[in-house]
Amino acid sequence: MKAWLLEQYDQPLSFEEVPEPEINEPTDVIVKIGGAGVCRTDLHLIEGIWAETLGTPLPFTIGHENAGWVHEIGPNVTEFNVGDPVIVHPVASCGKCLSCRAGEDMHCENMKFMGLTHNGGYAEYMKTSERALIKLDDGVNPADVAPLADAGITAYRAVKKAAPLAKPGKKVLMIGMGGLGHIGVQLMREFGNADIIALDMNKERLDMALEYGADKGILGGDDAISEVRKLSEDKGVETIIDLVGTDQTHADSMKMLRKGGNYFGFFAI
Q1: Which H helix or E strand runs over 6?
Q2: Where is each Alcohol dehydrogenase-like N-terminal domain found (predicted)?
Q3: Is the C-alpha dihedral spanning 231, 233, 239, 243 positive or negative?
Q4: I want to staple 34 with a disulfide (CB 3.0 to 4.6 A). Which of 142, 238, 241, 263 is the partner?
Q5: Mode of pairing for the β-strands spanning 133-135 and 257-265
Q6: Contact status, residue 175 vs residue 241, Cβ threshold 8 Å
């Protein structure tokens, strides 16, 4: 099969012929890739930022936002059949450790992170586990939803934590209307009841956020902090979800957050 390999850090990926993955464990599933998203983490992997942290031997296939169709299943797979359209969680977790039993699969003690520690989805086929799959509804094109495998669940987790605080009459500031932000706005519109303020440096992204459910859009710049504070009677907003996660957005958030407010921050990597 063909795959895009990371052979050297800080160099373009190489398009090569590699062996197809094989079933080794009873719950293994091989997925025919129908779509693979490009995440900032993928770009950082190419740059070698995580080379020492991960220690993943080169070459390997990156790509952790994947969707496609079940191609082959292990003998103990019961929930999926060959041909089923699926979206793939990045982590193939064991389901047995304390973290998995607590529903914190991202902290699995035996995790296999496709595209980071194991071969990912920039290929024709990828091996994962039954536990990592979610069946797609009929008519859903895997290529259309592949980025939800990471960008979608990342925004979902943050919004689910913040939504109980997003009560009527309160304000939620969401910083960064890129791949995570526009998904986050839609989720907050569904799960929360507060007014949503979107903040971004790009007007086109702000317009999209307003279309998807934000109540107010503020263009980033020298006046952004004062504009946010004006909307909250100069007291600051009750909740901030910072989807950018730089030192600057962390610092600015503290100037826009109400005393006793809640800050949900990401960390840029």
Answers
A1: strand 2-6
A2: 26-138
A3: positive
A4: 142
A5: unpaired
A6: yes
Single-letter amino acid, residue 159: V
Give the DSSP letter string of 175-220: E--STTHHHHHHHHHHH--SEEEEEES-HHHHHHHHHTT-SEEEE-
Sheet holding 195-200, edge to edge: 216-219, 195-200, 171-175, 237-242, 257-265
> 144-155 burial string, b = 16+ CB within 10 Å, else e?
ebbbbbbbbbbb
- The answer on pLDDT for 232 being more than 60 is yes
Architecture of the CATH domain 153-265: 3-Layer(aba) Sandwich (3.40)
Alpha-carbon distance of 245 to 263, in angstroms, equals 11
CA-wise closest residue to 70 among 83, 59, 56, 88: 83
Report the CATH fold assignment for 2-148: Quinone Oxidoreductase; Chain A, domain 1 (3.90.180)
d(CA 209, CA 238): 20
Tell whether the model's pLDDT for residue 145 goes beyond 80: yes
Instruction: Answer for the pair 238, 163: CB distance below 8 angstroms, yes or no.
Output: no
- Domain positions in the chain are 2-148, 153-265
Average pLDDT estimate for 80-87 = 98
What's the pLDDT tens digit per position in 5-32?
999 999 999 999 999 999 999 999 999 9
Q: What is the pTM of this model?
A: 0.86
φ/ψ of residue 65, rounded to 5: -110, 95
